[in-house]
Amino acid sequence: MIKLKRLLLIHWQAYDFQLVEFEDITLITGQTGVGKSTIIDALNVILLGEKQKHIFNKAANENSRRTLESYLYGKLGDDGGDGFFYLREENFTSYLVAEFENEETCEYFCCGFVADCSSDHSSPNVQWLTTKSKLPADYFINEEERIPYSINELIYENNFKTENEKVTLIVTDKDYRKKIAGLFGQIRDDYRRLLKQSVSFTPVKDIEMFLTDFVSETESPINVEEMQKSIRRYNDLEQESDKIKSKVAKLEDIKSELQGLEKRKLLELRQEYFIEKAKLDALQEQKENYHIDVENYQRQIEKNTRDIADSSKRIDVLGAKKEEMRDKRDSLVVLKDKVFLNNQIKSVNEQVQTIQNQTEQGQEAIALMKYFIRVVKALPIELPSITNLVKVFEKYNQEQKLISKFVEMNDLLDQIVKELVSYKHFVNEQEKRLKSKVSVLLNEEERLKKGIKMVPEQIRVFKEALQKYLSNYDKNAQVEYLSDVIDFKQGEESWQKAVEAYLGGAKILSRD
Fold first, then answer.
1. Which three-class secondary structure state does DSSP give residue 117?
2. What is the pLDDT of residue 53?
3. pLDDT value at position 251?
4. Sign of torsion over alpha carbons 53, 59, 62, 64
5. What are the Cα distances from residue 502, in Å, to 263, 303, 381, 476, 484?
6. Taking a C-beta distance cutoff of 8 angstroms, is the pair 66, 7 a contact?
7. Which residues of the chain have pLDDT under 70?
8. Does this model's pTM top 0.70?
9. Contacts for 233 with CB less than 8 Å, ≥ 6 apart
């Protein structure tokens, strides 16, 4: 489609400079004499490519005597007044140029004319013009002198423009009409006659002749009555089509709502899955922390083992010292301080007794540890920490190392056992809950794959309550979702027919 975008008027009747912008629909209003017909006549000249006086001011006065010269020189009082005068008495140049856009190619072009006019009001030098671009940024005005370019100056300015920006000047009306016919896409031959008729002050009297000549592409006369009937029938069909579209739109909305519900349900399922997975990851992290604690306990056991070894060495040293002191006692002939020696012997005996007691307690602890190891070996071992603990005890047992600080180690082992038991109980509970969640999710996923629609919880509860209530009156009564049992068949264009078919042909009256 070719669209009119702008109209440039320079020295045209009362307009010295005016740029008129057009939209898809443009309304030109104003009081008499403000220049509405002046703009229409400017478009007539550009689109018709004619300068004869019979085309001017026909929109306002059928008997107008305006001419191209009167518009250019600004002649006032030439339509039946007592006298006239000119708005322009000096030499000047006029421009009348319209800008168009080809929406299919997004290209612009301009067409119109330029006229050099003299102060003696003689016939102006008029040349038609076209361009392959928008209106120039300077609007054909010399920026230094602030006056429009003359024809010769316009030809000179062409030397500094690109190929699309150059102005093509055309001398004859016929050549100009051929040029714009190509720009507008070879319009019909009766276009100019129709344009003249459309702006005329005289209304159309024979509507059938007007339609036959300017609207219909056939040569036979048009039957207006049949055309009116067809138009009314078309309007009725259009209204019926709007109703059908409205119903289809509502069905589309229902479909969109259902799809939205299913998407939200899937989203909720995914969110629940991610939440449960996050909980499982937290449990895995807690499990790793327990492994770290067990490793710390193992390092503590190694430290205690080293302490036991040191205690063993100290026992050996004290035993050797005891033997040495016994030898000295036996070898002494005279004891100068028998009391001192007896006290020393008593002290050593007490230390030996203490060590023996600790040794017995260590042996008992070793026995208990061996029993603990046997019990652990009999259980299904799942945690690496238990395996490492068993290996440590087996290593110490093989080397026959005595253990000191058995009370601390025993407490440490009790704490490990308690934590492992608590952890096992916690993991079992979490496993049960996760399996339950996964089972529910898999069940809902299987139902979705089978096409079973998901419904909100409150609807499901209402269905079960209604089923229970109806069973009191009819044990065979069944409550179903309409969306599960209704069946849309080929050719049914609305939900109403599908529901009537489901109800055995019973008619349903509905209002939009």
1. strand
2. 58
3. 92
4. negative
5. 28, 83, 63, 19, 11
6. no
7. 53-65, 78-83, 186-224, 332-338, 361-363, 365-366, 369-370, 373-374, 376-416, 419, 423, 451-455, 481-512
8. no
9. none
Neighbouring C-beta atoms of residue 294, cutoff 10 Å: 19
Alpha helices in 65-171 (DSSP H): 68-73, 151-157
Query: Residue 219: CB partners within 8 Å, gap ≥ 6?
Result: 212
**Contact 199/190 with Cβ under 8 angstroms?**
no
Amino acid at 55: I
Helical H runs in 99-214?
151-157, 173-183, 191-199, 207-210
Handedness of CA 353, 355, 358, 360 (dihedral sign): negative
Encoded tokens for 349: 């005996």
**Are 401 and 308 spatial neighbours (Cβ–Cβ below 8 Å)?**
yes
Cβ count within 10 A of residue 386? 16
pLDDT per position as a tens digit, 435-462: 888 887 787 778 777 766 666 777 778 8
Those residues whose C-beta lies under 8 Å from the C-beta of residue 383, and which sit 6 or more positions away, are 290, 291, 294, 420
What pLDDT, on a 0 to 100 scale, did the predictor assign at position 405? 46
Contact 107, 101 (CB under 8 A): yes
Q: Which two tokens stand for residue 353?
A: 């007794």
Q: Beta partners for 102?
A: 2, 107
CA–CA distance, 408 with 301 (Å, rounded to integer): 10
Candidates 330, 354, 351; CA nearest to 341 is: 330
Q: Which two tokens stand for residue 17?
A: 């400079």
pLDDT at position 512: 46
Q: What is the pLDDT of residue 389?
A: 61
Instruction: Calculate the CA 86 to chain-centre distance.
Output: 64
- CA-closest candidate to residue 12, choices 67, 54, 73: 73
Please, which residues bridge with residue 19 across strands?
8
The answer to whether residues 307 and 405 touch, using CB atoms and an 8 Å cutoff, is yes
What one-character DSSP code corresponds to residue 211? I
Tokens 């996964």 map to which residue?
438
d(CA 461, CA 10) in angstroms, rounded, equals 80
β strands within 13-62, DSSP E: 15-21
**How far is it, in rounded angstroms, from Cα 128 to Cα 174?**
10
For 125, the enclosing helix (H) or strand (E) is strand 125-131
Terminal Cα distance for the chain, rounded:
38
Instruction: Note whether 453 and 483 are within 8 A (CB).
Output: yes
E-only strand ranges, 199-258: none
State whether residue 251 is helix, strand or coil. helix
Q: Which is nearest to 16 in space by CA: 93, 112, 117?
A: 93
